[in-house]
Amino acid sequence: MKRIWGLLTTVAIGAVLTGCGGEETGSAQTEGLLSDGVLTVGVTAGPHEDILNEVKNLAAEDNFEIEVITFTDFVRPNTALEEGELDLNSFQTGIYLDTIVEESGFDLTKIEPTITIPMGIYSEKYNDISDIEEGDVIGIPNSPTQEGRALQLFKEAGLITLPEGSGIEVTVSDIVDNPLNLDFITSEAAQLPAQLQDVGAAGINSNFILDAGINPEEYGLFMEDVEDLVQVNYLVSRTENEDDEALEQLIGYYKTPEIKEFIEEQFKGALVPSW
Q1: Is the separation of the CB atoms in 253 and 17 below 8 Å?
Q2: Which chain positions have S-diacylglycerol cysteine-type lipid attachment (predicted)?
Q3: Within this chain, do residues 246 and 194 fall inside the same structural domain, yes or no?
């Protein structure tokens, strides 16, 4: 049988400002990020976009206006935020942001955790992780941190050995032992689902699996343990705006029972709320 992840334990986050009901929010905001009357949020296409549109609809009931700007890559959402085209974005893990900040010098800050998107080993060819054969081609993401994350997943699945104590900084060249002589190739993360027909298996973030219309339960051979996962996604803003009232209001709308229920029903464990 394929390994299917079990019941996922959500983490309770401390109380946040309640933005739904009671007070008017967006209409009362006159300074800061809402001085133009609209909070502009950048997202990547797929689950982040779907969730923010639900948040947008919920906030609109209180006249809190959110504009959702959708990107198809991982570069522009941070560049646009740094350049002031966005008020914040929602698409990336904290670890990914740290890497981008270090490399680019962008003055961006994590504001609040949102969801966790587990990575899985997926295959159209095999039904069990133990079926992977010697010499198989294995696809993994080529983006910063995600290559190492995928390799750690294959290590946890017992297929390779990596240096003791290593983390997501590892690359294919760091593999210590590869008993099946697996041929690891790197590719754009979003392209990996389309490449499943050409490889034995691939390490893919579940959001890309969902985008491709693939059932993660049907094709997943091995999944990250969400309870131990540090790859949490965040709302991110420019550091100068990290205490802006509008961000607290957005968090209040995001981290509601309504949005949590939407995530759980819509994505069926492929995404996990962080609260």
Answers
A1: no
A2: 20
A3: no
